[in-house]
Amino acid sequence: MPSDYVYHSDFWFEEPEESNPFAAKASYCHGYDVYGQVIAKAGWFEYLLLMFKGERPRPDEAVLLEKLALVLANQGPKEASIRAAMNGGVAATNHSSALMSALAVGSGLYGGSQELEICIRLWEECGQDVDRWKSRLQAPEEDERADIWPAIEHPPGFDPNGDQIPTTLLQSLELLVQFAPKDGALHWLQKQRGALEEFFGCPISITSVAAAAFVDLGLDRDQGSMLYLMLRLPGAAVHALEQRKMGWKKFPFYSSAIELEDDPGPFKQRDEEGGR
């Protein structure tokens, strides 16, 4: 039965069942039969790249995305989005709330997807020109563009609180370059890392490495941002579940470590008659 209420998609097509138009008889992703071809023959990361890029990926591209996913899967409780999920878990909130907390905190300008978007945009602008990078990283905002996000307070892709690159991040970079194009972004980042860190006085962060990997995979800033949010959820989920079981008695409470610069003192109830 024809309808005026039709959803449109350029990458997804479904053949409806004759007996039920709301059920799919066959599904096609960029022309590939999902249940007849893709699921039987492809891996998870091949399927992801097919959906995002619209073409069958090369084997080396699927491996690079898989290794990046392993790097991002669990950044540990020091990472802000994972800690947000842990807060939800220890409070025994529902699971979707814990993951939404991780997504919200993980979307920001400090190690989040918004910072990653800026890094990928700068790759589009600067390419492999190190002097251009040094200039743009000091003023990464887009000219005359209104945005809900405040100005970033550190060079995007760098850790302003670090003195040197963490061992695990260096290991991740050295691993990923083994699966990346020889003339690509990851190899360039590995070669120029020392010069850039010396110039800015702080080490690169995970957003630098992830952004370079997404550039090597041919993904734009929006695609990279979505994948960055998705690929960090496994660690957030498991940490939330663990804290839910452990309970609040084993969870740190930071009130004694917080000092207010302008403390108004204890709250006093106003007297209704005297106004005090």
Topology:
Layout: E1 12-16, E2 24-29, E3 32-33, H1 34-41, H2 44-53, H3 59-72, H4 80-90, H5 95-105, H6 113-126, H7 130-138, H8 167-176, H9 185-200, H10 206-216, H11 221-231, H12 233-246
Helix pairs in contact: 4-5, 4-12, 5-12, 6-10, 6-11, 10-11
Organism: Marinobacter algicola DG893
Protein name: Citrate synthase-like protein
GO molecular function: acyltransferase activity, acyl groups converted into alkyl on transfer
Features:
single chain, Citrate synthase-like protein, mainly alpha, Citrate_synthase_sf, acyltransferase activity, acyl groups converted into alkyl on transfer, globular, 2 domains
Structure commentary:
- It comes from Marinobacter algicola DG893.
- InterPro entries: Citrate_synthase_sf (IPR036969).
- GO terms for molecular function: acyltransferase activity, acyl groups converted into alkyl on transfer.
- The protein has 276 residues and is mostly helical.
- The protein folds into two domains: 1-41, no CATH class; 68-238, no CATH class.
- The chain has twelve helices and three strands.
- Strands 1-2-3 form a three-stranded antiparallel beta sheet.
- The longest helix is centred in the last third of the chain and has 16 residues, at 185-200.
- It is globular.
- 31% of the residues are buried.
